[in-house]
Amino acid sequence: MKKTLAIVSYSIESVNSYYAQIRALFAESIIVKKVTIDDINTIKNIDTDVVLVPSYDMFEKVKKYIKKDTDIIFANRTISRVGLQKIMEIKKSSKVILIDESPEMTEQMISVIYQLGVRHISLESYWTVGKEDINDKPVIILGQSEHLPAYAKKIINIGNSLLDFNTIMDIGIKFDLIHMLNRQDISKSYVEVESANFGLEEILGMLNSRESQLDILLQTIDAGVIGIDTEGHIFLFNHNAEKIIGLSKEDMISKNGIELFPHIPFKHVLRDLESIEEKLIKIHGEYVVVSINPLVHSNKSYGAVAIMRRYKDTEKRQHKIRKQLIGKGHVAKYHFNNIMGRSSAINKSKSIAKRMANSNSSILITGETGTGKELFAQAIHNSSPRKNYPFVAINCGAFPESLLESELFGYEEGAFTGARKGGKPGLFELAHNGTLFLDEISEIPMNLQVKLLRVLQEKEVVRLGGDSIINVDFRVIAATNKNLKSMVNEGKFREDLYYRLNVLPLKIPPLRTRKEDILFLFEETKKQFNGNFMLAEKAKELILSHNWDGNVREIINCVEYLVNLDSRIIDAKDLPFEYEENLDTEMNIQIQREIMIEFLKTTSHDLRKYIFILEELKKAYINNRRLGRRSIHKIAKSNGIFLSEQEIRRMLIELEELQMVKVCKGRAGTVITREGLNILEYIRLG
């Protein structure tokens, strides 16, 4: 039967504060009764096993209602870190009044605050000062206080007092619940508590440090561990045991392991003090390999320990060892700090990718050629829980179908003509526990798409020419510069595989949408090549106006080209794309002039509305998205511009006829063209 505890204090607020701490640490193991000074006259007696009181004067008031054999705990109180911070922010040399629930409790709390390191102010008890002393002085209260005078001007509420470490330890000892004060509970319940009991806190820290080391050791072992004493009571039960048995540590500790697990031969080991190695048993219909060893020291038995692993996990260990014997390592070299850029667009992509790294779901990275999709994939792997395992990359467009299949699945000896003696593990196996990066996933043949989907669903693979099933556990990151959704609609890519891969979509922005990164990337790349050239202003202008279809990869090629020119000053004529762009300008200048004239004729008195639409389409273009007429209508309305959806539709059609926008079918929206961007820029400059 559970023991009972009565929390007695002056106010219900302080009672609730202590109750919350006790419940957080001991859960439902203690029946707690709440008692305030106002309740005494109605209940007449306090009938519990233990009574917790905050001060001696409170005890004097209630002791006649307490049975003689009842245990008494006098609470040592403290304050929260937030409360202490509020006190530390009080102006230096201030004289401050402190109000607690009684004179004795007030003096006690003043001592606690001084002990916590407060030296910059002078504290006085409310119960020893006169009214004139309170008028202009700051007043500290703990939670709600019925003693707070109405004439107090500056009030600092530091929150209800809290139970200190040694009081919690006293409660644990009185109720025989010390085993519940593990490091997780203490850290959770005391993360915001400032303790004045430094000696006890130090001891707890040392004990928790040892316990942490043991916990780390137990959690590092890739096996379930159950320890029992000579009576069969469980004193050790790690996380892997929880997963195998299907019960939590809290449910198991102090229970009788011999009775709970009759299929584990604990009784035999305790009786004969002999180990039992790798016995195959069944738990919840699943085969488990268990070894039991007696705990003996100085010829005295202290119990037994069972170490267990799922049978399928032992198979996985064999595959892991086999991979090490093969000796082929796959390592990700890049981290997020290797992804350069200052723009909000690239930083947003990095932020999203960092959050994705913590997940185990498949990622589909999309982006134009040269945007750094593999760089992102490696950075995600190196920030994930799988970072200590292989990063295996393959370009699906670099192999013919038959060779790609053997690379992915591996093969057994003699599977086909030319097969390596002894066979070869596939990339699925090599990526076990790590990450498999499938670059240019759009190029994978339809026949292999079916097989890939099955591996992703079942996490099982069979080598070519083999018949044994190999369990694999890897995270897949795929990348493409094509629109997979369109390929699905065209029947060129399986829809089920698309949705299996596109769980977490990640878009990498092209350089043209983040112009502010271009010169920065140029300079950083120049440092990598040890280049010592300087860019003339005309060269900078041309670099900024260049479209950079090859993105970061094109910048790298351009810088490498300029480094090899061995020129101190790089002018516009030295750039590898300058001549090509001038031709383009000469060819199109007349066309753009004609479009401009026609545009001004078409828009006439509605020019402002047309410019508004073009401005919004440009913003969408920079953010790599498209706008429909409904979206434009909403934006116009929010900006106080009257534009009906019908009017927007007409204007978009006219702009498309002028080749300034491209209106897509259905709900795909509208995108501004290069001509539209050029003419908009011309109007701005005009």
TrEMBL record:
Pfam families: AAA_lid_14, PAS, Sigma54_activat. Keywords: ATP-binding, Nucleotide-binding. Residues 210-258 form the PAS domain. One of its GO terms (biological process) is regulation of DNA-templated transcription. Residues 339-564 form the Sigma-54 factor interaction domain. GO terms for molecular function: ATP binding. InterPro entries: AAA+_ATPase, AAA_lid_NorR, P-loop_NTPase, PAS, PAS-like_dom_sf, PAS_fold, Sigma_54_int, Sigma_54_int_dom_ATP-bd_1. PROSITE patterns: PAS, SIGMA54_INTERACT_1, SIGMA54_INTERACT_2, SIGMA54_INTERACT_4. This is PAS domain S-box domain-containing protein. It comes from [Clostridium] ultunense Esp. The lineage of its organism: Bacteria, Bacillati, Bacillota, Tissierellia, Tissierellales.
